[in-house]
Amino acid sequence: MDSIGMSCIKYLLFLFNLLFAVSGIIIFSVGIMIQQMYSSYSLFIGEKLFTLPFIFIIVGIFIFVVAFFGCCGAIKESNYMLITFAAFLCLIFILEAAGGIVGYIMKDEINEMLETRMNNSLREYNGNIIYYARTWNAVQHDFSCCGVKSYTDWSYIITNGTLPHSCCPQTPTDERCLPEYANKDGCLPAFENALEHNIFLIIAFGISVAVVQFVGVIFACCMSRSIRKYETV
């Protein structure tokens, strides 16, 4: 048990679990960040897509607990804890793969949902619910856009030839927002591009975590095998 090879595997597994615990904290933080970043746009995103940050938070906590379990298994050289740790890693890997596949399949559905919800909420801009106006003003200001697909979408909502002031960031607040001074690009493509960019970063990070998980499974299996050999001697 005191062989150099066994000691190397033990400390490498312990180091891996520290990195794995850090990745869990990062995933947890990403979930919090996504929740805060898109909370102002929940009117467009919908409940189905807005569950993503909560999933990240739960997965981050779960990964941190699994990493702690792996550290204990490495320090105590417990065969059962290492096997359980490897099984949990495989489970997390399967869930991540399933989530990635579902996300890819739902990509077109998400884009259609965004367009539908944006069009529906645009028609309610002048209604009694001020939340619609606040959300549209926020997205048009943050993404430097106007309307769903272009600024002309507002001509069906506001009939006096003006636009919401959030479409004209350079126009003083005491002046009317006119089409010639407004942002011309629509918010739908800008919002979709932002979502796709963030999803790409999440996928890249997920692949990195998956690689770390795979290495952890190898280390855990090697150490478990060494422990079994020692116990049978």
UniProtKB/TrEMBL annotation:
It holds the Pfam family Tetraspanin. The chain crosses the membrane at residues 12-34, 54-75, 82-106, 199-222. It comes from the Eukaryota. Keywords: Disulfide bond, Membrane, Transmembrane, Transmembrane helix. The keyword Membrane applies. It is found in: Membrane. Disulfide bonds join C145-C187, C146-C167. It is a multi-pass membrane protein. The keyword Signal does not apply. Its main location: membrane. One of its GO terms (cellular component) is plasma membrane. Belongs to the tetraspanin (TM4SF) family. This is Tetraspanin. The lineage of its organism: Eukaryota, Metazoa, Ecdysozoa, Arthropoda, Hexapoda.
